[in-house]
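Recap from last week: sequence in, structure out.
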Amino acid sequence: MSTAQTNAEVAAQPSQTPVARSPRVLRVWPAVAIAVAYWLAILVISRLDLVISTTFFATVITSVLTGFVFLIWLLSRRAIPGRDRLMVLFALVGGTVLVNYLSDASVGVMGILFAGPGVLCTAWAAWLLGARKWSPTVIRNGLLIVLALVWAQFTLVRINGVDGRQQASISLRWTRTPEELYLAEHASAAPVLSSQAAKAETNPTLVVAAGDWPDYRGANRQGELHGTKIATDWKATPPKLVWRQRIGPAWSSFVVLGNHLFTQEQRGEDEAVVCLDATSGKEQWVHLDKSRFSDGQAGAGPRSSPAFADGRIYSMGATGIVDCLDAATGRQIWSRNAATEAAAPQPMWGFSSSPLVAVGVVIVYAGGPGEKGLLAFRAKDGEPAWSVASGVTSYSSPQLVTLGKEPQVLFFSDAGLIAVDPASGKLRWRYDAPATQMWRVAQPRQIGDSSIILGCEDLGLVKLDLAQHDGTWTPTVAWKSQALHPAFNDFVYQDGFVYGIDKGLLCCVDAQTGTRRWKAGRYGYGQLLLLADQKLLFVISEYGDAALVSARPDHYEELTRFTAIAGKTWNHPVIARGRLYARNSEEIACYQLATPELHAARSDGESRTVATRVSR
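Predicted structure tokens:
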């Protein structure tokens, strides 16, 4: 075949034109699956009875992991041009930096990480599902617009903290905070006696009398009320509101001496120790320290509660300032900074240890290095008395007990439990229990003459039996139990049984064996105290409902309840001289509690009235 003939045949064949490829259709089911998996995981976490720290870490890890997996999937999609994928990545990084800069201080990086990835991935998945057949340019622009809309929300809101189940309270950032409303209201009120003006005043020295509440969780720090009975039928004789008013943020409790009510609060850039008239709520005096602490979970304000001894009020602020004040006038007698003296770092949630006054010294927790963990100052002049190593992190408070007729101060930290001599600080014994990413908050409880029960989220409950030989104390573990995991909710003891809140549920545990007898009644992460003479638990829920529950091991029984205050309530309530004092970071209220005699008299009067009507 000639070359000419071959060329002619080739020329006679029809020309081949390239076939246009159809654009790739983005498969989005993995994106939808990631988003659905995120919300299912969050639902499961919220429904499980997990300890607070586990809930927090599980939520953050789920959020971050969701964002990471979704981003890896998105950046590997060839249906989206590489240049578009890089543009989305740069916009995500740059937008996060910009939002962190523009958002309210309460949001920050942690606020974005806590909820941002899950919400963004869900919104992106929804967009991709609807736009999967559109052009890459439209898909890219949509992803950028969705990113801007989702991220912009974080610049418009303020996070007012979270509750025990890590549910955030969110409001628009330009609305006034409860603290701002309180400060405005307080500024318009009549001026009161300041601690500086009080120097010239002549006031009697205050002393403890029957019915007073002189310390954190009562006279023995065990959360028990003795010598008082109240009416238990709140339908027939409901607690009577005496007064209610705003208060500055803090998680402090009260000291009550007669008609003097002491607590702590935050007032703008000042930490305040205040004395109120217990019968009216009117401010009597205030002492201010230029200091402010705040964190994203609990908000601003002091965390500890004041203590009273020998006519003086002792307090510790969230930044470590320890004050000694005249209880009658608020006049400052001395002041120290425990954080400075111990070279201690600022705890994540501030200094929370309530001062303990014993044998002429004031004992506080600083958490400094070496021997600067637990500090003691002389009560009369504030001079350092002693210090001892006690662990790096704790939100618990020193606890005075008597073992073998010997006073000892217990302290519970991330290292375990130590016991020291209150006069010298000499270590008497220790129980090593290193923390596993948990924090120790609840108070240890003495049981009998020589046993201690301690509790926290990672250990559950542990009972220690103490034996003394030749002046040496040796702790032995009697039992360990996972029946109760005290978080920042202290437990009480009655007739051989421990009662406390375990992940939002009230429960009863046998103190001899560590076995749970019952678990019921949802109160959130509230607090409780024991009405020992009536074998009742007074419980205030995480959101301000007050309830009476029988302190009996055979079954759970709630007798009555009413709403005492509104909002997240982590503060310990106090009942003193027949009055209930309840507060949170926004308001404080006082209620008169009826006595059984008054209830009986009222019931008898009603019966006579009915009988008279019948006879007529």
